[in-house]
Amino acid sequence: MEVYAEAWNWLKQHKCENAVSAQVLERYAMSAARWIQCEEAISAYGFLGKHPTTGAPIPSPFVAMSQSFMKQANGLWGQIYQVVRENCATVYEGRSPQDNVMEALLSARRNA
Prior knowledge:
The protein is mainly alpha-helical. The protein has helices spanning 2-13, 22-45, 61-87, 97-111, and strands spanning 48-50, 57-59. The protein has a two-stranded antiparallel ribbon.
């Protein structure tokens, strides 16, 4: 919800909240939140896991999931940002909500 609220407020600040589809914004927020969750799991459990039947070390499934959600979030953010660039009623300066997602990932690793 935090990711969605930050992105919505950013769009509203630039007067583009009606130009971006609510579904795209929701999918972005969901993908970004899941990406953060996977990165927190990687920080907590590491990059290796244990095979359920053999017990041998295997790559953590959270790594592949994280990469997938990161790709989705970045692609959706690209769509949102493109709409803002084309329709923005104000000059864009400063940070975007995508920067805050990266900060959340970094702070999660520091707190782990």
